[in-house]
């Protein structure tokens, strides 16, 4: 897996949400593509809870000034409401991106019985 911070300093030419919010593809100006996703397994669920901001504000507006991943395991961050369905273990993961034109936060939620991954993957494809 790659570090999400690798997007910092690169200019996006496209951002595409695919498969009912199960993955996001980022394309940078040199043609490289990166995928943000989670492969579902038994007894867990990981999905995009919310996208705050407009992903199109990141495209073609100069280099990414901020590319940051922040996770909270078994704790609900301030200003975030916990989903109604209970789970033994849960993880909130926030992906923050900003250009001079705007900023976006992609909020993922993962819950499981504690034996499965709730992590979001990021990788060059």
User: What is the arithmetic mean of pLDDT?
Assistant: 87
Q: Determine the structural class based on helices, strands and strand pairing.
A: mainly beta
- Based on CA atoms alone, the radius of gyration comes out at 15 Å
Described by strand count, sense and barrel closure, the largest sheet is:
4 strands, antiparallel
Strand line-up in the sheet with most strands: 1-2-3-8
What is the gist of this entry?
This protein is mainly β and 125 residues long.
Protein architecture, described:
With 125 residues, this protein is mainly β. The protein has no helices and eight strands. The strands form two sheets. A four-stranded antiparallel beta sheet has the order 1-2-3-8, with no helix packed on it. Strands 4-7-6-5 form a four-stranded antiparallel beta sheet, with no helix packed on it. The protein starts with 11 loop residues before the first strand and ends with a strand. The model has no long low-confidence stretch (mean pLDDT 87).
Name the descriptors:
47% strand, 4-stranded antiparallel β-sheet, globular, 125 residues, single chain, mainly beta
Outline the secondary-structure elements.
Elements: E1 12-18, E2 23-28, E3 33-37, E4 44-52, E5 66-73, E6 89-98, E7 103-112, E8 121-124
Antiparallel strand pairs: 1-2, 2-3, 3-8, 4-7, 5-6, 6-7
């Amino acid at each position: 897996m790659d570090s999400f911070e690798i997007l910092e300093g690169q200019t996006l030419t496209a951002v595409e949400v695919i498969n009912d919010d199960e993955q996001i593809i980022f394309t940078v100006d040199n043609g490289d593509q990166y995928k943000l996703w989670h492969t579902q397994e038994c007894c867990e669920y990981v999905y995009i809870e919310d996208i705050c901001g407009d992903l199109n504000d990141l495209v073609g507006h100069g280099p990414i000034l901020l590319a940051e991943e922040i996770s909270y395991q078994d704790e609900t961050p301030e200003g975030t409401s916990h989903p109604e369905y209970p789970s033994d273990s849960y993880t909130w993961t926030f992906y923050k991106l900003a250009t001079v034109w705007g900023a976006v936060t992609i909020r993922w939620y993962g819950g499981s019985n504690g034996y499965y991954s709730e992590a979001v993957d990021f990788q060059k494809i």
